[in-house]
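Supplementary Text 2. Reproducibility record for the structural model of the 115-residue chain.

All settings were left at their defaults, and a single model was retained for analysis rather than an ensemble. We include the record here because the model underlies the residue-level annotations in Supplementary Table 4.
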Amino acid sequence: MIRRGAKSRVEFAGHYTVPRWGCGSSCSQLVIVDSITGKVYDVPFSIVEFPMSYLETLDSENYKRMEFHADSRLMKMDGCPNETNCGYYDYVMIEGKGLELVRKGLVRKKYQPEQ
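Retained model, structure tokens:
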């Protein structure tokens, strides 16, 4: 998946591709590949969708679990990393280093998975 995705068009931060694949029901994994050097950057977690009780409160037509653009270094990921701490996560791509967390906003406790 990574090799195939690395050959796709640039999707992020000027020269990166973002190969992604499913990891189960409502789960996505991804990496970031530098289309110039071929270096692969891990994303800090698998993204599991918000609990259904929280999804029902969102505008489903405009909700995006992940958002990134070819002309921006900002990557927004919404969900429950590794099935915990459901919230909104914003990262910025640091050249040569990978993603750096710049904002984290958790959803209310009643929507968090029980541990």
